[in-house]
Design goal:
It is a single chain. The protein is an alpha/beta fold. The chain has a 4-stranded mixed sheet. Strands 6-1-7 form a 3-stranded parallel sheet. The radius of gyration is 15 Å and the shape is globular.
Length: 126
């Protein structure tokens, strides 16, 4: 039996259903520099930071992993992961393969990665 929580990392191509699957579980709140979309709440959907603040946090080694997509930065803070594990929570994170690798390296006994895939025909017909 685990003494602490579990981090489930969902990885897969766009349209594979990662976000839909994650909605059925407690999702870890990650960070981004992009502007909030309509209806998104800071601290719930994402922790929204300015680009400058995010870079400052990078220099302070606050992130277990981060990536850039469409000119915006996205990252997962050690603080959020450690808090979830200490509270014995099972949390889900949607991220790319590099992020999944970083999580597995830092938390080898408390993380699993699940790759979701969907064939192109199903995506076209959906």
């Amino acid at each position: 039996m685990r003494e602490t929580g579990l981090i489930v990392v969902l990885v897969g191509p766009s349209g594979s259903g990662k976000t839909a699957v994650a909605e059925n579980f407690e999702k870890l709140t990650t960070c981004t520099t992009r502007d909030p979309r309509e209806g998104e709440i800071n601290g719930i959907h994402y922790n929204f930071f300015t680009h400058e603040k995010f870079v400052e946090m990078l220099h302070e080694n606050c992130f277990v992993e981060y990536s850039e997509y469409a000119g915006n930065l996205y990252g997962t803070r050690f603080e959020e992961l450690d808090k979830a594990l200490t509270a014995n929570k099972e949390v889900v994170i949607v991220m790319d393969v590099n992020g999944a690798k970083a999580i597995k390296e830092r938390y080898p006994n408390n993380s699993i990665s699940i790759f979701l895939d969907r064939n192109k025909y199903d995506l076209i017909m959906a």
